[in-house]
Design brief:
The complex is a heterodimer of chains A (about 210) and B (about 80).
Chain A: H1 10-17, H2 21-42, H3 46-63, H4 73-91, H5 136-139, H6 142-153, H7 157-168, H8 173-180, H9 184-208
Helix pairs in contact in A: 2-3, 2-4, 3-4, 6-9, 7-9
Chain B: H1 10-13, H2 17-21, H3 27-39, H4 41-57, H5 67-83
Helix pairs in contact in B: 3-4
Classes of the chains: A mainly alpha (about 210), B mainly alpha (about 80).
Chain lengths: ~210, ~80
């Protein structure tokens, strides 16, 4: 019996090694869309992302004999696809070198006009126009989610990569640091800038139509 | 890391919201942060909006695969199996 991090995945791994097509298709159903999105974080076109995801599946099949089960199948697949996508992006010189993943701007998280001035006699730096409560059903409405997606796409590259992996794909900060080669602190700064901007974009929309 | 002053303005609070959500805040800052939230509805709303922003950013969970994609991957699988 294969010793794997997730014992419940052992039969699936054995089936794949034996060339079981149904086992492969169940993995494809579960992970392919997310693999394409992850590839898309690194490469510029949807077609290339799709291609990279297919390459990753082939790589996974070729490597399944050596899969030692130290991680879940999901993490293993995502590591393969992000490695390949990063290599592909670097080869096509469409990705900036790692130094470009350093946070470069130092803009405030919230428009300074939202706060009372620093020389305010009573409440310097406190809200002049405080944020309101957002109704949850509006937050999860299709149009709000589309707006979030558009705001993420418009972010500077490094911020976009971090928020796409953390908040869109739900990766842990360790997984993101590993995939992007950034420190935990830089990852957090980039995430903060990204989330702050997406929040501001949503506020204009969720606030206005109430 | 940005440290909070003992009696922070809202303007400082919004800069450390992610440190708070990521649980990467020194204990004393955490206490100051939570104390501020207790007296400031605007910052409570702001923190909740950040949590809602994270939820609104999440990928859809049940995207089913287009049949032609499925077929391409089946071909890829069969090719691998025949070479195995």
């Amino acid at each position: 019996m294969l010793a794997v991090a997730r014992p419940e995945e052992a039969p699936l791994v054995s089936a794949l090694r034996a060339g079981d097509e149904a086992a492969f298709l169940s993995l494809v159903q579960r992970h392919h869309s997310s693999m394409v999105r992850v590839a898309r974080v690194f490469v510029n076109s949807p077609a290339i992302a799709e291609e990279v995801a297919q390459e990753a599946w082939l790589g996974a099949l070729e490597g399944i004999g050596k899969f030692e089960g130290r991680s879940s199948i999901r993490s293993w697949l995502l590591a393969i696809v992000s490695n390949r996508a990063r290599t592909r992006a670097e080869r096509e010189a469409r990705s900036s070198p790692f130094s470009a993943l350093e946070p470069d701007d130092d803009e405030p998280s919230v428009d300074p006009d939202r706060f009372l001035p620093a020389d305010h006699p009573r409440w310097p730096g406190h809200w002049a126009s405080p944020p309101e409560q957002w109704p949850e059903e509006r937050v999860l409405a299709q149009e709000t989610m589309e707006l979030a997606r558009a705001a993420i796409d418009a972010l500077p590259q490094a911020q976009r990569k971090v928020i796409a992996l953390r908040d869109v794909e739900g990766w842990s900060s360790e997984e993101v640091c590993e995939a992007l080669g950034v420190s935990e602190v830089n990852q957090r700064v980039l995430l903060h800038r990204a989330r702050s901007k997406v929040r501001a974009a949503l506020e204009a929309h969720v606030g206005r139509q109430r | 890391m940005t440290r909070l002053s003992p009696d922070p303005a809202c303007r400082e609070i919004v800069e450390v919201v992610t440190d708070y959500l990521e649980d990467r805040m020194p204990a004393e800052d955490r206490a100051i942060f939570e104390q501020h939230l207790g007296i400031c509805r605007g910052c409570r709303n702001y923190l909740e909006q950040m949590r809602q922003t994270i939820r609104a950013s999440g990928a859809p969970h049940d995207e089913s695969l287009a049949p032609e994609k499925n077929d391409e991957l089946v071909r890829l699988f069969r090719g691998w199996k025949s070479r195995k």
